[in-house]
Every structure is written in structure tokens, then in C-alpha cells.
Amino acid sequence: MAALLGRELRVALKAGSGALMGVLFFLAVVTVFPFAIGPDLNQLGRLGPAILWIGALLASLLGLDRLFALDREDGSLDVLVLEAHPLMATVIAKCLAHWLVSGLPLILATPLFGVMLNVPPLGIAAVMATLAAGTPAITFIGAAAAATAAALPRGGLLVAVLTLPLTIPVLIFGITATNGALFDPDPFTAPFLILLALTLFSAVLGPLAAALMLRHSAE
Amino acid sequence: MRFEADTLSVNRGLRRVVQDVSFSLGEGEVLTVTGANGAGKSTLLRALCGLLPLAAGRLRLAGLGEGEDDPLIFREHLHYLGPQNAMKAALSIRENLAFWRDFSGGSDGLEIEQALRAVELPHVADLPFSYLSTGMRRRVAICRLLVSKKPVWIVDEPTSGLDRSASELFAGLCRAHCADGGILVAATHLPLGLGKAQTLAMETLFTVFEGDAFFDGEEA
Amino acid sequence: MFGKHAAFILPAYAITLVVAVALVVWIVLGYRSRQREIARLERGGASRHGRKADRASSGETR
Amino acid sequence: MNQDTQTLSPAPSWWMRLANPTRFMTFADRVIPWLAGLAAIVAAVGLWLGFSAPEDYQQGATVLIMFLHVPAAWLAMMCYSVMSLSALGTLVWRHPLADVSLRAAAPIGAAFTLLALVTGSLWGKPMWGTWWVWDARLTSVLVLLIIYLGLIALARAIEDPVQAAKPLAIMTLVGFINIPIIKFSVDWWNTLHQPASVSRFARPAMDAAFLYPLLVMALAYTLFFFTLHIMNMRNEILARRIRVLKLRQAGR
């Protein structure tokens, strides 16, 4: 498993495009909102966390289909499935590597984009914390859809459509926790803990479904 | 260790592509699978590795004890070299082979330098895989079989993209593998020059459809 | 009969009816066109039994 | 799969007897007219009961829309359960018609979900003046619609139906497991943002005059669903026969 994690990271760093694409798309989404809502800073400030979360969610959704598609193209998916002792472990390793490459950069970019949207420092910290807790869930849930769409021509869109409704709870608790940190009456710990629970739950369900899908890679 | 198949049948969707294939391979024995394109060679090989479900028949890697008749379990003792090379273009040869050695868990395979010398590519270890020509890439893909030792090799068009001398090289490696008690199943157009080998000629099945049973309702 | 909310009750029933009828029509037309398609294909010689008919099997024709 | 799949779990005999498409087709041809007739009769009774019910003091005559909206929402859920059962049929019991049943149910389920949303908004308009209110139940039904359409898109994306069976079954079950989570989180989100008054959308306490028509309409919808489902399964089987014939023609 560690070997796979190492390889995935080296591939991503060497190829380099994966991480950058995600952050660029995140920047594009964040930049678009003020044009729609208007340049009024305190309005943007209030909506900032929501814009950051939506940007991060969409960016990680669109990067998901690369999770298995690249391996299928160069043939290593067959050998990975063949050699994998517990196939689920391989899928989890791939999800972790994918998250480190495409999820983490989004979190690291949040402060910059947060300042652009006039989000107070506490808000930025809250968004980063909730993204750190929530984005792995998106990768895990998306793993099943990514395994399905790996062999399809326009798999990327299909993965996004299949995964989006399943990530709505993550979005809801991510934003509720962020608001909890910003405005006193709202609770922070309760939604944040539920968010963590969602991530742990999807860390089991997603890879299990993806492993089931890959066991007979019929193509 | 015996690799036995008993009236295997495999489908691709509703089409029956492989019908009633049987063979029995002892240690050191070779099976070459021939046939026109679309005759089901690749399908059969993928089914042998458990990458495709069997429609009918039984497959066993006897001598393994537990899990010997379930491809999903015994396939860990197989090396599958598919039509593609399973190497990451962005990584160097050394990184690719080191990964497959660690991931496959074969501890008693050749060292990377040894494997590369065996395919006469001693100087490429640190080049990115994408720099190589198709013939050299195929040879590196063959190295993956050397860096971790597995008793059964299942290779699909192993010599595709290889010139005469490289094919000779590969035949030599196969002979060494078999001499060492290994089993080899190869799907190929050109003769591998492996001397005594069982052959399985597959012919294209157009008319027989799994669908028949599905629609005519002979059996539930 | 429906009082002041007629403007909402009638469309509700109308839409439900339209969707229900559309579903039925779509399925029935699908059934008919597929039957015609099978008849056309089977007349064209691609009979379902194919080579199996040569083998001595029951081959009960539908 | 390994060889002993047949002995995996001995399904009830009549169910396995239906597993064979030809027998299913004859069964379908026989049962569909009866089912359709029964559905029509029960629907007529439901409508008659509904229209003769006294006007609700609170919502006036709009309660009549409820007789359409609530059964549609129930059916949207029931249809997804039928699909999830079929998904288990594909994955666990290898039932040859399970995938056919799943594919046949999806568009019908999506139609009922759409119906639930439309009648829901028509029911809400007179009370809140807006066509769409982000009430917990309506939002969950909307998410369910997206899941339905995602599955239909997946079914159409993979060309060969037999190879698409497993991915479809797995994604249906993944969806099924997530629906309660989505319901829970939407309810939580709804209570946080919605002032208590708006969630009055919850059904008022039912008195018999409204409960009977509602239950009868629900039964009518269910019968209607099974009629359509069996008919659509018949279509799906024919579609696969056409595919085999065409493949064979290509093979000639």
C-alpha cells in the first residue's frame, strides 16, 4: 500500500498537472462569484465561506475521474487489481494519494481566496478546518463512481453527476460548522463531528463499492 | 503445481466468446494460444487471471491448498502481461520497476539492474519511461515479470513491437522460466520458438450466443 | 366546486394525468416498435437460434 | 464468479421460475391487463372519495392536491426500494432479470419523483406565494430526482447492458445507503435555516375523511407503478433480443 501511495505521489508531482488544475478551477469559480453577486465587500464576506466551499467541492468533483482512468489507459489497473491482496486497501491508497494531490492544494489555497472574498481570518480558519475534514469524504464517495466511469469516454461528467447528490450532506455540515465558528449562537462542534463521521463512513462505503466494481474489470 | 482448466466458457456481455476450453499444464509446460483477431485469445487470458467472470467451467491452480479453484484468490501467483505495458510514462524505469517489485511483494525476483541486463537495456534505468521506443518499452514491461518471481506467466502478445532479436531474447527468458518449474500461457501470432508446447487454436464464435439460453429459456 | 384555489388544483390534476398518460404511451409505443423490429430482424434471417438450431436440441420455436 | 454461484442462496422456486425471460413474457402478457384494470378501478374509487371529502378548514380545497402529491412522493421512494432490491438481485442472487427490472423501474421512478415535485410546488404556492420552498421533504425529493437521473445517465453511458449490470447495481445501492443520510442532513439544515412557521408544511393531523382517499390513491399509484414496471421490463427484454439479433447480423 505504501508503495502505491509513493508511486501515485511521484506520478502526480512529476506530471504536476493534476494538482494545479484543481486549484486553477477553484480560483476560476471563486473569481466568478463576485461578478455575479457584485463587488460589495461585506456581502461577499458573508457569502465567502459558502463560495469557498462550493468552489472546493466542484474542483474536487471534477478531478475524480482521473482516479482510475489514467491507470486503465496504461494498463496498470489490470495488474493493480490482479496483485492487490485486499483490493479495498489499494483503492484507499489511491484515494489518499488523490486527496493529497488534489484535495490538499485546495485547502492550502483557501487563505488566498478567502482574503479575496473578504472572509474574516476566523472564517478562513473554519473553512480550512471543515474542508480538511470534508474533502476526503468527497474523494472516497467519488471512488465508486470513478471506478465505474474509468472505462467510459466522457467519464468525468458522469462521475460528477453521480457523486454530487451523495456529497450534499458533506456540504451541509461543512457550511454549518463554518457558520458555527463565525456566529456565536450556532454550534460548531456538533456539525464538525458529524462531518468527521461522514468522512469515516464514506471511507468505508466508497472504497468497498469501488473494489466491488474493479474486481471484474470487465473491459 | 498444476494449472488446469475444465470446459471454460467466457462471455463478453451477451456474446459467448470462449466456448469449452480445457487444458492442463504441469510445471515447466507451455500453452500457446493462437487464433485470428477477435477469436477470444485476450478474453481467455483475462478470464484465466480472474479479470473476467467465467460463464461456465472450472479453473484450478492445483497444489496451492486453500482457494486453489477461485481465480480471485489464486491470481496472486500469476503474472499477467497484457497488450499494454502497465508503466507510468512520467516515472523513470527504475521507479516503475521498483514500484512493481514492492507492490507485487515478490521478494526473490531479480534486481532491477539484473532484469534490465536480461533484456539488454542496462543503460536506461534512470530515463523517464516515455523516452523509450515501443520495442524498448515492451522489454521493460517484460522486466516487470522478472523483478518479482511468480510461478505462472500469462502473456498476451508478448512480442508485439519487438524485433527478431528481442523476440529471441524473450523466448530465452521463457525457457529459463519454464526450466525453473514455471508455467507459461502465451497468446501470440508469431511462433515463440519454445519447442515442445501445447497449442490451443481458437476460432471465432459468431453464432453461439449466451443470449440463446437467456431468451429461449432452456434453463433458468 | 374547487373554490378560490381552482387555479392550483386543476393544473395539479392535469399535470398528473398528462405525466401518467405520457408514461403509458411511451411504454406501449416502445413495446409495439420493438415487436415490429424483432419481426423485421427475424424475417431478415437472423433467427435467434442461429447455429444452435443445427445442433439436435429441442429448439422449440416461439 | 466461482462455480458454486447457483448454490449461493436457493431463491424461492416460483421466483426462479420467473427468472427465465420467456416464461416471464407469457406471465407479463397475462397479468398486465388485469393489473391495469385494477389500477384504473382503484384510482376511480380514490378520486371519487377524494372529491367527496369535506373541504379542509385550514387549507381549503387545496387538500385535493395532497391526494396526488403524497402518493407520488411515497411511490418515488418505493420505486427506489424496488430498484435497490433488483440491485441485490444482480449482485447477490445473480438473477438474470434483476438488471432488467432495475433499468425498467428507473424512468418510472424519475417520473413519479418529478410528479411529486410539481404537485408539491402547486400545493405550496397558495400557502406561501412562492412556487418553490426549500422545505426539508421537498428538497430531499429533489435530491432523489438527481440520483434517479444520474443512474439513468449511467445506464445509457455503458453500451452493453450486460456489462452495465454490475456498475448500475452498485451505484443504486450506494445511493440507497446515502438516502437516509441525505434526509437526515437536509432535515438538520432545514431546521437551522427555516423559521418554525414555514415548516408547517408537515401534514396537518389527519382525520379519516382525508386518510382513506389518501391510502386508496396510494394503492392506485402502486398498482399503476407495477403495471408500468412489468410492461417496461417486457420492453427491456425485447430490446435485448433486438441487440442479440443485430449482433448476430453483424457477426454473419
How many helix segments of chain B?
7
Catalogue the unreliable spans of chain D: 1-9, 196-201
Radius of gyration of chain D: 21 Å
Mean pLDDT of chain D: 83
Strand content of chain D: under 5%
Oligomer: heterotetramer
Q: Provide the gyration radius of chain B in Å.
A: 18 Å
Low-confidence stretches of chain B: 215-220
CATH superfamily of one domain in chain B: P-loop containing nucleotide triphosphate hydrolases
Distance between the termini of chain D: 30 Å
Question: What is the count of β-strands of chain D?
Answer: 0
What does this structure look like?
The complex is a heterotetramer of chains A (219), B (220), C (62) and D (252). Chain A contains nine helices and no strands. Chain A is mainly alpha-helical. The longest helix of chain A is centred in the middle third of the chain and has 30 residues. Chain A is globular, with a radius of gyration of 18 Å. With 220 residues, chain B is of the alpha/beta class. Chain B is 31% helix and 25% strand. In chain B, α3 packs parallel to α5 and α4 crosses α5. Chain C has one domain. The C terminus of chain C is likely disordered. Classes of the chains: A mainly alpha (219), B alpha/beta (220), C mainly alpha (62), D mainly alpha (252). Chains C and D meet through α1 of C and α3, α4 and α7 of D.
